[in-house]
Write a structure and sequence with these properties.
511 residues; alpha+beta; five-stranded mixed beta sheet; 18 strands; 43% helix; 23% strand
Length: 511
């Protein structure tokens, strides 16, 4: 379960290891490369066709911990598929989420003999030195869904014919489900055509006929043989679909996409649709690449498009056994050079460091001295300024104290004047008012007293009258007139028989 790290590359090169074709994309331009060479800023991608690997689906218990899943699948694959115990197969795994089971988890296993990978790529690896990703050809179709070139979430089939292989792949809800190799590669179709036609023709002539002649408009004697050949192919496709529907409990196949590495003049998707009654369409899309080629094997743009999708959206498997050369310091020669350089640096590091530190300290001392002189001059100037300001402050403080003392004196005088002004005028007014009332009621006063406690001011009149009625009338009258200004309190009226006079004391309190 390997993962390919993401880097920035100048271009991408795709490889068909079976035909030796290379295509390079720079930006969005895709072109054939006849003389590929090693370049460290180039990302290389290739594939294995369905005849180069074994595909199977295995179930294991959900009780197995995640860290043990791969080992469990590896052992089970050797047992159930009777793999050669002497060969250490390269096995890559992806989980199948189409199967819902309470007890088991399902996984797709892709199994390859490493020696076969070595054999398949021996003619191309010598030219570019490394390949970043090698993946099973059926998984390239995932790119069509990831890039939303195909937007349906139904069950789709992909029939693809190559020179050395033909395969039928099924995707359900945008995820890989099943693949099957068919014995209808172009080379095998050529052999079968010769049998049907009863005449041996060259392989290149056979391919030229398919690429240049439209079966609808030709009267060639090869027409009937080609149509019969196609019908045999599509009958096989129908049988495989019937098996897959039963094995994977599929209700129906919604569409079949038909493609090939060779340009076909005849629309074989129309023939396929008529033969097996399933909607068919040519596997040829606008992938966003510009090119000068008349036709490109569709697997090449799919591989280039695959490198453009985020790593987390790819299937996590990689069959490449041709890694990039390690970085310089990870090689043995690089390590020796690094150790030698480090030894030389260590040998010279003490004297150089001592000289650098001494020079740095002298420079720092000079800078500190200059800084000290500057700060000292500022300090002396500021101390003189502060001393002058303190002297000025003492003079001002003395003046303020003297002015404050004079202010307090004048304030006390003004308060006394105010009190005299308010109080004496008030007393005089009150006495004048009560004198008028006393005279009016013919009541005399023996004595007048004034008392001021906090905010309370009280006048007390000692009254004398010939009749008690005069005193009560006086009280009644002034209470009515001055109830908003005074409160009145009259003590008990006392009669003196010897003098034949009435005495009482009246208190008037200012409100």
């Amino acid at each position: 379960m390997s993962k390919q790290s993401e880097h920035s590359f100048a271009n991408v090169i795709s490889i068909n290891p079976y035909t030796g074709e290379f295509y390079v994309s720079v930006s969005n331009f895709l072109s054939k490369e006849d003389a590929p060479s090693y370049a460290k800023d180039q990302f290389a991608i290739s594939y294995l066709n369905t005849r180069s690997f074994i595909h199977t689906q295995l179930a294991i218990s959900k009780n197995i911990p995640n860290e043990d899943i791969y080992d469990a699948l590896y052992s089970k694959a050797y047992d159930e598929l009777a793999l050669d115990q002497a060969i250490e197969y390269k096995i890559e795994v992806i989980e199948d989420f189409n199967n819902l089971d309470e007890e088991n988890r399902y996984f797709h296993l892709f199994i390859v003999d490493p020696s076969e990978i070595q054999e398949i790529f021996k003619s191309v690896i010598g030219r570019i030195n490394y390949i970043d990703i090698i993946l099973p050809q059926p998984l390239l179709y995932k790119t069509l869904y990831t890039k939303e070139i195909i937007e349906s979430s139904n069950v789709d089939c992909f029939l693809y014919i190559e020179e050395h292989d033909a395969s039928l792949t099924i995707y359900k809800e945008k995820e890989f489900l099943y693949t099957k190799s068919l014995k209808f590669s172009f080379m095998e179709m050529h052999e079968r055509f010769c049998e049907i036609h009863g005449e041996r023709i060259e392989y290149e002539e056979f391919k030229s006929f398919l690429a240049e002649v439209n079966l609808k408009h030709t009267q060639s004697n090869k027409k009937e043989s080609i149509i019969k050949l196609y019908k045999e192919l599509f009958a096989t496709v129908g049988d495989v679909i019937t098996y897959a529907k039963r094995a994977y409990e599929l209700d129906k196949i919604d569409k079949i996409y038909v493609g090939s590495s060779l340009y076909l003049e005849s629309k074989i998707d129309e023939i396929l649709e008529a033969e097996i009654a399933i909607r068919a369409e040519t596997l040829e899309f606008d992938y966003g690449f510009e090119t000068n080629e008349h036709y490109i094997d569709q697997l090449h743009p799919l591989m280039h498009l695959y490198t453009a999708i985020p790593e987390e959206e790819r299937y996590p498997l990689n069959f490449s056994i041709f890694p990039r050369p390690p970085k310089f310091f990870q090689r043995e020669s690089g390590k020796i050079i690094a150790v030698t350089a480090a030894s030389l640096i260590i040998a010279f590091i003490y004297p150089i460091t001592y000289w650098v530190l001494a020079y740095a300290q002298d420079l720092q001392l000079t800078l500190l001295k200059d800084k000290y002189n500057e700060i000292h001059n500022i300090r002396v100037t500021r101390e003189a300024t502060i001393k002058n300001k303190k002297a000025d402050l003492e003079k001002v403080s003395a003046l303020v104290a003297e002015e404050k003392k004079e202010f307090e004196s004048k304030k006390a005088t003004l308060i006394k004047i105010k009190n005299v002004k308010n109080n004496y005028i008030m007393k005089a007014k009150v006495l004048t008012t009560f004198t008028k009332e006393l005279n009016k009621h013919r009541v005399k006063v023996q004595n007048i007293r004034y008392d001021e406690t906090n905010a309370t001011r009280t006048f007390q009149f000692d009254l004398v009258a010939s009749k008690s009625i005069k005193i009560t009338r006086l009280l009644k009258d002034i209470t009515k007139k001055y109830e908003d200004l005074f409160t009145f309190d009259l003590e008990k009226i006392i009669y003196d028989p010897e003098r034949r006079l009435y005495f009482s004391s009246l208190k008037a309190t200012k409100l």
